[in-house]
Amino acid sequence: MKMLLFMVIFYFCNVNGFESDLIGCFKNMPKNSSVYLANIQGDDHCIKSCNGIYYRYFSFYKGHCACSNFLGEQVTNSTCDSYCLDNQCDGLTQITNVYPTGNLVPGPPRNLSIANITSSSCRVYWREPESYINIIGYVVRAVPTQTFSTYPSNTLEWTFGNSTFQNEISTLLSATRYNISVHSISNEGNGASVYQIITTKLADPDTLPQQPVILSSDGYKMKIKLASTTNNNGPVSAYRIIVVKSDDNQAFQKDSVLSYTEAQRNGLSYYVAAEIKPEDINKEFTVGDGKRYGPFYNARLDPKTNYNILLGLVSYYNGETKIVYSQASGYHNGISILNVYDDSDQGDSPGVIIGLSIAIGLLTFMFITGIVGFLILKSRIVNRRQRLSENQELTLQGPMIEVENNGYIHEEDHIPVNHYRNLKQKVRTLSSNQLKIEPTNLLGVGKFGKVNSGTLHENDTLTTVTCYSIYDKKMNQDTKKSMLQELDLLIKTGKNENILNLIGTSETREMEVEIT
């Protein structure tokens, strides 16, 4: 009896609740903007269903439920049953009780899709909501939920007009999971959102690894100290130790760094000696110990060869791999290893280290002094030969062949020494300290040498240039003669189809560099 009384009270409260929200009895409800729902059990189920799909009104009469954002013609502000008591209502009379759902904002946009996902951007597509009255615009929001970056992970937001249904969003973080959502804006407030989870692609690590520090060397092996590196563009998965034979002067191609065996087979002067875990990076490492580290063999070093040691940072994520290396060998972009032999068993003691440091300093001083003396002696010999050549030209007798100024006598087997000086006087000669060649950026190989990019420091400004390195000391007479002829032609014209402008030349002990 008590249970029955409770159900009766609840029923009347429920009915009276809906009656108090009744807008009225309507006929001719707009069919093209209404949604008719089947299998609805009561008006409570009807209001929940219409509110769940973001309609403003629901109508329920004689077991029929419909949802709509617009009203028809109102016949009375009371129920349809009250109206039919005073009027004749037959089966053809299309009337229904209309109630508010309490929802005023638009529903979620339809057909959300995301494509063209890169490491920093993606393109978002959507359509207008199923239920709405007016829309002012749309808001696309990107909320990071997981990232490797140490930068602040702020929510990004973009606003578009009501006629825009696709756009590219950028400035996203690499290797980061985002919740991408879209909702509409109306006069009554923000509409419901629809969202999709994406993950941006992996980008190259944003920080280069620090250069290794050499601690000791015995010719066949060398002990180095490594340092960890942060990466805001993805995980730090591993580190790779690269051995470079600096004597070979081979361009370092980061996309062709292979194992020791594969490098030997392909004629490369650099190889991966080891791959170590991030937790082992702060430990000392011995290059050339003959062990395997990961899939790589740490081969013994040749005591007669100078080496550079580079450190690579490896990042694996979602099937992608990105690797960056410490600055390439040469121009202080690596560790230049000298062959220091230590016969003592206690090579790590402070006394031995101090003694080796003093010996290295003295040898370096003697080496530099020897180079300076060699350059002075070479300059004197060249000047002496030039004076002898000029004297011989003054005492020449017999028939003379007239030639054009700055031309070449093709019948001669040898080019006079002073002819090269005449060519140099017609173009600027730049100091090698002003020029920095990038050995890792090989642009091509010419007839007389390699072509690399570089920078020229002049008058406190840096200029990007192209450097043609010519090892003229290693050329035979015919090749050198051909090179000088092409250089003379280039000086006269100043440019050709491959050169916009000849800036000048620079010389070292081993080669000449044409700067364009």
From TrEMBL:
User: CDD domains, from UniProt?
Assistant: FN3
Compartment(s) where it occurs, according to its Swiss-Prot or TrEMBL record: Membrane
> Which Pfam family is one of this chain's hits?
fn3
Q: Which residues cross the membrane?
A: 352-377
SMART domains attached to this UniProt entry:
FN3 (SM00060)
Task: Just give the chief location class.
Answer: membrane
Report membrane topology: Single-pass type I membrane protein
* Entry GO CC: membrane
> What keywords are annotated for this sequence in UniProt?
Disulfide bond, Glycoprotein, Membrane, Repeat, Signal, Transmembrane, Transmembrane helix
Q: Which residues form the Fibronectin type-III domain?
A: 108-206
Give the residue range of the signal peptide.
Answer: 1-17
Q: Which domain of life is it from?
A: Eukaryota
Q: Which GO terms describe its molecular function?
A: protein kinase activity
Query: Record's SUPFAM superfamilies?
Result: Fibronectin type III, Protein kinase-like (PK-like)
Q: What is this protein called?
A: Fibronectin type-III domain-containing protein
Which lineage is the organism of this entry classified under, starting from the top rank? Answer: Eukaryota, Metazoa, Ecdysozoa, Arthropoda, Hexapoda
